[in-house]
Amino acid sequence: MDVILSSLLLWYGLTGGSGEQDITPARVAGAYLNAAAGHQIVQPAIEIAGLNGVAADAPAKADPQPDAPEVKGVYVSAYSAGSERFPSLLKLVDDTELNAMVIDVKDDNGYITYATETPELLEYGTPQNYIGDIDRLMRLLSQHRIYPIARIVVFKDTVMAHKHPELSFLYEDGTLWKNNKGESFVNPYREEVWKYNVAVAKEAARLGFKEIQFDYVRFPEGVEQRAGSLTYDKTEQSRVDTIAGFVKYAREQLEPLGVRVSVDIFGYAASVPAAESIGQDFAKISSDVHVISPMIYPSHYGSGWFGLDDPDKNPYHTVKGAIEDTLEKLATAGGRKPVVRPWLQDFTANWLGEGRYIPYGKKQVEAQIKALNDSGVKEYLIWNAANKYSFADSSP
C-alpha cells in the first residue's frame, strides 16, 4: 500500500518534515496542484496510441467477473504468505466475514515474490523465493474459498531501476535518483516498464489470481522539484494522461484473461483536483478499472478534514466523509463507474504525536466498516503492514 508516500506528502511535502503542523484541505489541494514539467532528453519513449483520457461517451467496461463476491479482505505480505504465519491468516478469514486476501506478487522493493522462470520477467525483474510454493498457496486459497488478489507495486521499483537505470530517473552525472528512504522509481513514460508490469500481472492471472491490484501507479513525489537536474525519457503527454494510459493499457491486456483490474489511490484524491505532479487523476483512473481502492485511513487526514480536529481519533466520521467525497466524485461516471472498495486502517498511528491519535483495534475497524455500510458501500480491504489484524481480537 502506498502508505509511505501518503505520510511523506502530509508530513514532509506539506510541513517541511516536522510532522507537527496542521494539514488543511486547502494546503493539500495546493500541493496537488504544484506541478512542473520533467526534463526531456533526446530520445523520447515511444508513444502508445489512445492514451489521452477517456471520452465522455466511451463504452462501458466489461466486468470479467460479474459474479464476483462482495470482497472483504486483508493485506498479506509475501513473507507471511510463504511462512508459518499463513495458517493463522487462513483461520482469520475462515472465522470472520472476511473472504479475500491481497497478496504481494511484486513487492515494494520491486522483487517478484516467488521463483518465476519466465524469461520476460527475468529480463527486467528479480525473483525472491518468499513464497516457496506458489502453486500450493493458490490451492490453499481455493480450498478455503478465499478470493485471491495479486498486489503489484508498479512504478516504485528499486530493483528494476538498479538493473536498468536507463528506465529510471538519473542525475546529470548518470547516478540513479532515489528518495530519502533510498527507494527508486522507474519511468512511467517507458513502454518497457508498462509491458513488464503487465507481464507480471499476466503470470499472476495464469497462476489463478482473480484480480490484479496495481499500487504506486504514479510518478515519484518530489521529482518535479528537481526536473532541471534529472534526465528521463518524456513524451508530449501529460503525467496524468500517461498514468491513465498505463491503466487503460493494463485493463485492455488483462480483461480478456478473465481477471479484474484494480488500482490503489490516495483517499483524498477524491476530495481535491487532479494530482498533476504525480500524475494521478481520480476520475480518469477510475474510468478504466473494474475496482478502485482509495486509501481512506483516518491517520492520513490532517486537522481540518471533514470538520474534525483530529481525524485519526474519529474513525467513523473520517471514513464517512471520505467515502461520501468518493461517491460524489464518481456520480457522473455512468457505465464506467468501478466497484468502490476502500482500504481501511487497522494500525495505530503513534507517529502523529500525543493527543493526535488513538490506539486502533476491533472497535475502530468496525466503526470504519459501519461508515462504509451507512453510505451503501459493502466492500473493503484492511491494511496492517505486519499482518496483525484486530479482527482476530475477541475483546469487545
TrEMBL record:
Keyword check for Chaperone: no
GO molecular-function terms, A-Z: hydrolase activity
Entry-linked InterPro entries: DUF4015, GH
Record's keyword annotation contains Plastid: no
Domain of life: Bacteria
Domain DUF4015 span(s) in chain numbering: 73-389
Gene3D superfamilies xref list: Glycosidases
This protein's UniProt keywords: Hydrolase
Matches recorded under Pfam families: DUF4015
Protein's name in the database: Glycoside hydrolase
Source organism: Paenibacillus thailandensis
